[in-house]
Amino acid sequence: MAATASSTTPVCAGDRLSASDAYEAGEGVYVRDGFLFAGVVGHKRIEPPPVEGGKPVLHVTTRGTQPLVPKPGDIVTVKITRVAQTTATALIVCVGRQALSTEFKGAIRQQDVRATEIDRVIMYDCFRPGDIVRAEVLSLGDARSYYLSTAKNELGVVYARSAAAGAPLVPTGWVTMQCPDTQTVEKRKVAKVGGGWGSATGK
Amino acid sequence: METSTSGSRVDGRGLEEFRTVFIKTRVLSQAKGSAYVEFGTSKVMVGVFGPRQSEVRLGFTDRGRVNCEVRFTSFSANKLAKLGQTQSDSLVAQAMQQALEPSVQLEKFPKAVFDVSAMVLEAGGSDLPVLITAASVALADAGVELYDLVPAVQLSKQAGQLLLDPSLEESGAEEGSLLVSLMPEPNEVTSLTVRGLWADSEMRDGLELALGACGQLKTAMREALLAAVEGEEDPAK
């Protein structure tokens, strides 16, 4: 297979890279007046056209991680900080697979917890403070926090500790998790990650 | 004291010559991006932190913000200054923020704030353009998406002559001063500050000199940033 054309020449923010009819703008590149410019300091990288007959994509990639802000549609990892009657407050600690340098506040509202039986959601049976939850960013929300949603099968609690013993709970169903030490069953909105749940019960 | 002869200055520089410029990035490990810049005896250190969440009292905004803070060390000037931010410090911070904000692609960071913390280690004259230049290098080092770097220069008008990058003594004796910060590639001025009386022809000459000097300065900024990038592995390989 032909190697992807790539250049090792580093470019600086503001450098003009090419005319915009030769390449599509990728990450770290912006368009102005018919030209592509680098937006960050890094290395140029050219990607083959995603569709047949399309233009190659030009990226500029930086060392380490770029500053990251949650965007609507992102899958984020959050830690629940407070549970109220209609809202669970959380701190966004990861966006996708990248940890954030500082946490952003998020809120999971009652109507966004699950896709079915929205009227009968009880927040305290879905989340507890300290739980680690996978969620999707619904919108920028308000000045206080992003609005998050767990209304999909693969979203929800991925890690929780038992209220009594403090041991990590094992998911046993869509809405239940069990303590391996005391066998106590606790209610959570469980995320379906990887395979099914433990051997004890089927779906 | 003998006055300087025409065409040269007390420190031996030509009229349109910078002081010695030294720029180094990645000097603070805890900052996302950082830069240390020297212009002769003006020494500043800048760190960029964030993005972090905006304060609630500032309300909702779908564009990010740049928050600048400047501190002068107590040993940075001849007279010992009291600690904390004085009124002139916040004016410097506001001018810095005004100069930097147009260059950052803030629409890519909704509801977020970048904190630019600057410290003047030695105030050797023309401190504000050094701060703007250093902050722009630090933002680029942090990986923040920019439209262009922002070099900034200052001129002094003295006895009918225009002096580029005035030192502390020259600033004290000036009749007028001109500060320009510029994005050289789109050729857009991000801030312009004029003090004193300037005739139209003097202003035109001053702007031409300043814009040319900004181009030179951007070359130095670019070299410092690319030197840091060249020192690491190409991530595509």
Q: How would you describe this structure to a colleague?
A:
The complex is a heterodimer of chains A (about 200) and B (about 240). By secondary structure, chain A is mainly beta. Helices cover about 0% and strands about 40% of the residues of chain A. In chain A, the strands form four sheets. Chain A has a five-stranded mixed beta barrel. Chain A has a four-stranded mixed beta sheet with strand order 1-6-7-3, with no helix packed on it. Chain B is an alpha+beta fold. Chain B has one domain: Ribosomal Protein S5, domain 2 (2-Layer Sandwich), CATH 3.30.230.70. Chain B has a five-stranded mixed beta sheet with strand order 1-2-3-5-4. A four-stranded antiparallel beta sheet of chain B has the order 7-6-8-9, with helices on both faces. In chain B, strand 8 and strand 9 form a beta hairpin. The N terminus of chain B is likely disordered. At the A-B interface, strand 1, strand 6 and strand 10 of A face strand 3 and helix 4 of B. Chain B: This is Exoribonuclease phosphorolytic domain-containing protein. Chain B: Keywords: Cytoplasm, Exosome, Nucleus, RNA-binding, rRNA processing. Chain B: Its main location: cytoplasm. Chain B: It is found in: Cytoplasm; Nucleus. Chain B: Belongs to the RNase PH family.
- Strand % of chain A is 35-45%
Q: In total, how many beta strands of chain B?
A: 9
> Would you tell me the overall average pLDDT of chain B?
84
Radius of gyration of chain B: 18 Å
The total count of strands of chain A amounts to 16
Unreliable stretches of chain B (pLDDT < 50, length at least 5) are 1-5
Category by helix and strand content of chain A: mainly beta
The total tally of domains of chain B equals: 1
Morphology call of chain A: elongated
The level of helicity of chain A is under 10%
Q: Strand order across the biggest sheet of chain B?
A: 1-2-3-5-4
As a whole number of angstroms, the C-alpha radius of gyration of chain A is 22 Å
- The CATH class designation of chain B is Alpha Beta
Number of helices of chain A: 0
Structural class of chain B: alpha+beta
Secondary-structure element pattern of chain B, one letter each: EEEEHEHEEHEEH
Tell me the major beta sheet of chain B: 5 strands, mixed
State the major sheet of chain A: 5 strands, mixed, barrel
Biggest interface found: A-B, 38 and 46 residues
Give the CATH superfamily of chain B: GHMP Kinase, N-terminal domain
